[in-house]
Write a structure and sequence with these properties.
By secondary structure, the protein is an alpha/beta fold. It contains 11 helices and 20 strands. A 10-stranded mixed sheet has the order 9-7-5-2-10-1-11-15-19-20, sandwiched between helices. The structure holds guanosine-5'-diphosphate, 6-O-phosphoryl inosine monophosphate and magnesium ion. Guanosine-5'-diphosphate binds next to helix 1 and strand 3.
Length: 423
């Protein structure tokens, strides 16, 4: 069976967690392929809200295996906290949760390095979640990292010590004041590593290969969004992994010709958290309303998300790079009550009208060109059938489908699992 992918098409927080949870009943395996605890994936069902950071969003379904792939970076301390929360909810994860031996570990000193790097950048900071993501991927590509599989070796603590010592020297090198008690951080880290070691480590590429061969269905769950991709995002204001479809191949060991459906997920408007350009950002009441009604606060850091109109130039780019086959539009309910809506359909780029994403989308180069749409008044949150959607929303959807040339198969009208309309 082919491996289906689910990816965020904007700057993250599109609602990936919700939709993976909704789709899990169709799959035997849910596999995270990149990112780490910088992600915050929210699931809402039975009146409860759950936020997952590293653990795949299929974990609440007994029927599915949940794999943390080789492309993911794991902070044992945060991972343990996630497990504790699952235990509180009586989720029996021991049999269903699998971890790739090739996934890299985030050390306490990676987090400190992240903080030192950001502080040293001053105003030019990335707005990192400070979870150690950048430094950990740097050690991975620099061939210095410690992997989950190393924990099964007797000498891993020596490796750890050497790397942590090097990191301390690097922290000193940054001319910033980072206060820390490494002994305390390490005690917490080693205790969490022991918990991690009680879970099942696997050679995940072989596991996925055999699962595919035996006809099991697999959904790969992305983290972040395409515009945060290390290659194709708004560099340097990006994360440190490939968040796009290719990242699923390298982050799980799935061959490109084994990819099936590519589900692209986007909000009916746009949000971004952290620094970096955002052409359709709103600084007026409309943006404030989106943030308030949409409760746009980061699931990992609690920071306010910046809000703006839908950017079709950026969305088309993301669909193109990922080979999206089906779209899912989230948070349509948040736009109820807007008299009119805008969608950016082109950029004025240094005086030229363009419809592709240029190298630089900083505000001094790019002015969005908008089409206007009539808004709708109806509350969508109780609707469960496509036929109930207001005409104005259908017009909005029809326009997007025509422009993107990809069908919108799901319209989400609230955070709950049940507030999902299939088309
Ligand atoms: P992810 O990182 O892509 O999984 O998304 P997040 O969980 O970080 O952010 C999405 C937020 O929107 C969460 O608070 C969800 O509960 C919420 N959400 C998801 N879908 C909808 C929707 O259709 N309507 C509303 N109002 N909220 C939604
Ligand atoms: P999910 O999976 C939204 C952003 C950070 C920062 C930049 C780099 O929940 O959609 P990093 O910690 O990776 O060094 O931060 O990327 N960022 C996210 N924004 N959703 C996420 O994940 C994000 N993960 C990282 O805010 O701008
Ligand atoms: Mg999120």
């Amino acid at each position: 069976m082919a491996v289906d992918l689910l990816l965020g098409l904007q700057w993250g927080d599109e609602g990936k967690g919700k939709i993976v949870d909704v789709l899990t009943s169709n799959y035997n395996i849910i596999a995270r392929f990149q990112g780490g605890p910088n992600a915050g994936h929210t699931l809402v069902f039975n009146g409860m809200k759950h936020v997952l950071h590293t653990i795949p969003s299929g974990i609440f379904h007994d029927s599915a295996k949940n794999l943390v792939g080789n492309g993911v970076v794991i902070d044992p301390v945060i991972f343990k906290k996630e497990l504790d929360k699952l235990e509180d909810q009586k989720v029996d994860y021991r049999k269903s949760l699998l971890i790739s031996r090739k996934a890299h570990l985030i050390l306490p000193t990676h987090r400190l390095l992240d903080a030192a790097s950001e502080t040293s950048k001053g105003k030019a900071k990335i707005g990192s979640t400070l979870k150690g993501i950048g430094p950990t991927y740097m050690d991975k590509t620099g061939r210095n990292g410690i992997r989950v599989g190393d924990l099964e070796m007797t000498n891993w603590k020596e490796k750890y010590r050497a790397l942590a010592n090097k990191h301390e020297a690097m922290i000193d090198f940054y001319d910033v004041n980072i206060q820390y008690q490494l002994k305390e951080l390490e005690a917490e880290f080693f205790a969490a590593v022991d918990v991690l070691k009680s879970l099942t480590f696997i050679d995940s590429e072989e596991y996925i290969y055999q699962a595919q061969k035996s006809g099991q269905t697999i959904l790969a769950e992305g983290a972040q969004g395409s515009l945060l991709d290390i290659d194709f995002g708004t560099y340097p204001f990006v994360t440190s992994s490939n968040t796009t479809a290719a990242g699923a191949c390298t982050g799980l060991g799935v061959a490109p010709n084994q990819i099936g459906e590519v589900f692209g997920i986007f909000k009916a408007y746009t949000t971004r958290v952290g620094s970096g350009p955002f052409p359709t950002e709103l600084f007026d009441e409309a943006g404030e309303t989106m943030g308030r009604i949409g409760q746009e606060f980061g699931a990992t850091t609690g920071r306010s998300r910046r809000c703006g109109w839908l950017d079709l130039v950026a969305l088309k780019y993301a669909c193109q790079i990922n080979g999206v086959t089906q779209l899912m539009m989230m948070k349509a309910d948040v736009l109820s009550g807007f008299k009119s809506l805008k969608v950016c359909t082109a950029y004025d780029y240094k005086g030229d009208i363009i419809s592709h994403l240029p190298y630089n989308i900083e505000a001094e180069n790019v002015t969005p060109i908008y089409s206007d749409f009539k808004g709708w008044k109806e509350d969508l949150t109780q609707m469960d059938d496509y036929g109930q959607l207001p005409k104005e929303l259908n017009d909005y959807i029809d326009f997007l489908e025509k422009e993107l040339e990809i069908p919108i198969k799901i319209v989400s009208v609230g955070p709950d699992r049940k507030q999902t309309i299939f088309r």
